[in-house]
Design brief:
By secondary structure, the chain is α/β, with parallel strands linked by helices. It has twelve helices and 14 strands. The chain has a single domain, classed as Purple Acid Phosphatase, chain A, domain 2 (4-Layer Sandwich), CATH 3.60.21.
Length: about 375
């Protein structure tokens, strides 16, 4: 019976999850981002930290693990090995780990269940804390860390010390004669389905989680391969496009975005360039890549001009076990993926990279 329902309902559930899982409001998003950025600058350490960074500093930004109770509603279970291997890699290389929110799935699970079933991941995160290289930012699914009176007690149980939890952070870099602010926050602010909405929390915990557990469906398909930007990501971009000498990194949507474009959008841009340059070799390759990811009859989007100022870390709970994240190292910013390869061994894969110095003057466009 379960397999029959999976076949009948999987596509519909994933489609509905993508359609109704977010209700972003442009005005609310813009106001919330502006307010948080201003607050961090005016009172560093209250709602967020400011890091003055150089080319020697190294950061890894991962979000949206949604650690659960290792049941069929636990989207993180397939990705755990990739996550642990990634943390081992970044700890050994002395990266500062910024956890960008929704690390724990506390809409669907009790805190006790999450602590019980995630001891290995908490121990791996603890290694960064011991080196003073860990910053934890809350999201909508782990808002508990910001507003529950027992949050400090449980943080001490998990990590052996009560650490501060923030709403955002700023990485401030000197780029030539200018300063570049890389503003980080989870990105749920202004989403009417997520920003303090009690009904959404009730629906997820009471209706969606049991249904997902029974049907064994993970709606987090690898969006970096086969989608244009979500409406929410587009609204995030519209805010950062109005700022000067700034870049924005969020999570929340589970869709990786690099320099304001998804992987599919980048294929369209490169294809357009190859057509204008009559580069036959690139045209053949890109046509093959494009048809892997679109349906017959899909039209190329009108991308217009984009400043390369918006990034999204993706998530650590894709239904194939992959995780994605953003690295900042040696004056570069990179979109990376950790994926299972031969014998299910996790492997780091570089998807995109560019110089931080290019963020202020590079324009990506189609047409």
């Amino acid at each position: 019976m379960r397999k029959l329902l999976q076949r009948l309902l999987s596509a519909w559930i994933i489609r509905m999850s993508n359609r109704f899982g977010s209700r972003p409001d442009r005005k609310r998003i813009h106001e919330a981002l502006s307010k948080l950025y201003k607050t961090i600058n005016q009172d560093p350490g209250k709602r967020g930290l400011i890091f003055e960074i150089t080319n020697e500093d190294k950061f890894i930004i991962l979000s949206d693990q949604h650690k659960g109770a290792r049941d069929y509603a636990d989207d993180f279970s397939l990705s755990e090995k990739n996550y642990l291997k990634a943390l081992q890699y970044y700890n050994e290389k002395d990266f500062h780990y910024i956890n960008l929110g929704d690390s724990e799935e506390l809409w669907e699970n009790l805190m006790e269940s999450v602590i019980k079933h995630n001891k290995d991941t908490f121990e791996a995160e603890k290694l960064f804390i011991n080196k003073n290289r860990f910053t934890k930012i809350f999201g909508n699914h782990d808002l508990y860390w910001d507003n529950d009176p027992l949050a400090g007690f449980n943080l001490n149980r998990i990590y052996g010390k009560k650490i501060r939890i923030y709403e955002g952070a700023i990485l401030r870099a000197q780029i030539g004669e200018n300063k570049l602010d890389i503003f980080l926050t989870h990105g749920h602010q202004g989403d009417l389905q997520s920003d303090g909405n009690w009904f959404s929390k009730w629906f997820v915990s009471t209706i969606w989680a049991p249904l997902q557990a029974y049907l064994q469906i993970n709606p987090n398909t690898p969006a970096y391969d086969n989608q244009l930007k979500t409406v929410h990501n587009t609204m995030m971009y519209s805010w950062i496009a109005e700022q000067e000498n700034m870049a924005l990194i969020t999570g929340h949507t589970h869709q990786p975005v690099f320099a304001s474009l998804t992987h599919l959008e980048r294929i369209y841009v490169k294809l357009d360039r190859a057509q204008k340059e009559k580069n036959v070799k690139d045209l053949e390759f890109l046509e093959v890549e494009l048809h892997k990811r679109i349906k017959e009859g899909d039209k190329a989007p009108r991308l217009g001009k984009y400043q390369p100022s918006y990034f999204n870390s993706g998530c650590c709970c894709f239904n194939d076990g992959d995780i994605t994240g953003i690295e900042i190292e040696s004056g570069m910013i990179r979109l990376i993926k950790w994926s299972y390869h031969e014998n299910d061994i996790p492997k780091r894969i570089l998807l995109e990279e560019m110089k931080l110095s290019d963020l202020s003057d590079l324009k990506l466009f189609n047409g």
